[in-house]
Amino acid sequence: MQMLSIQEIAQLLDDQGLEPTDLPIAMQGGQWSKAFAFSSCEVDYVVRLGQYLDDYHKDQIASGWSRPLLPIPQIIAIGRHSDHCYAISRRAHGDAFDDQSADGIIASMPSMLRGLDELRTIEPPGGRFGLWDPYGHGTHIDWRSALTSIDHDKPRLPDWKDKLSAHPEASKCFDAGVARLKELAEHVPNHRHVIHGDLLNGNVLTSDHSITAYLDWGCAMTGDSLYDLAMLVFWSPWHPDLRQSTMRNLVLEHCNSVISLRENAEERLQCYELHIGLEALRYQAFAGRWNEVQLSIPQIDEIRTTRSAPPKDSAAH
Questions:
Q1: pLDDT digits (tens, 9 = 90+) for 126-148
Q2: CA distance 205 to 96
Q3: Strands (E), the chain
Q4: How many angstroms separate the CA atoms of 69 and 215, rounded?
Q5: Separation between Cα atoms, residue 139 and residue 154, nearest integer Å
Q6: What pTM did the predictor assign?
Q7: The domain 6-90: what is its CATH number?
Q8: 270 and 308 in contact (C-beta within 8 Å)?
Q9: Shortest CA distance to 6 belongs to which of 49, 45, 42, 53?
Q10: Is 95-305 a domain of CATH 3.30.300.30?
């Protein structure tokens, strides 16, 4: 799909009653969208262009939850233009949470944890569990099945299984990881919390160690909110100066202070870290990021082979 020219984007904005003061400026985009900053009538905005309108519907749902501890940019308009889907939102300012130094990340964690605590108080918009459809409904009957379906096909990752099978070491790691995941998932609680699902990759902004925006809700799910914290733990070794033990200790200390997170916290973290690693592995294979695959394999194997004390059975709670 060919990206619109800057002039075409400016015309799209003008059609929405938001005539840009100057031509839109390209920002760092993600895998599924390209973002452009612009101002209109002295207000800063962002327009994103991509293939998936569903993601922007999820952003629109989430924008209704914005509050001081959980800042989420207001969505002004979503729709289709030519072969593209678009979303226009108020622009939030700040630096990417995961682009900070290790000290900066640790200093920003209290604000991050307060935001996720606030998110836990919000009722999921639809029924069921797992990844949302455009209306906030999950796709699985319970949280366990949402986790253990990771070896199923995924429309946005066509041929990921074929690509992974062409790398025997990665394929073996994935299969062994799925088997272990199914064991660990037997004990996860069936909590119905909103999960952001992608707190890195520039999707959280900070200023002076306070979170200024939670962006891009395209990976939003319904399930156990500890999953978002597991993501921070899993990816921490990929930061050049951040020790995973430091992040894990911060997360476990917080879990001990929250009733819904406290029970079997270490075992649940292991389950969710393994799921996050397997999700990363199949995406990396799909995208042909074989250097990242080689880094993921030993990390996944280490999580998989860790044996903890048998957890209390909280799956029915």
A1: 999 999 999 999 999 999 999 99
A2: 5
A3: 25-26, 33-40, 43-50, 75-81, 84-90, 95-96, 130-131, 193-195, 204-207, 210-214, 221-223
A4: 14
A5: 12
A6: 0.94
A7: 3.30.200.20
A8: yes
A9: 49
A10: no
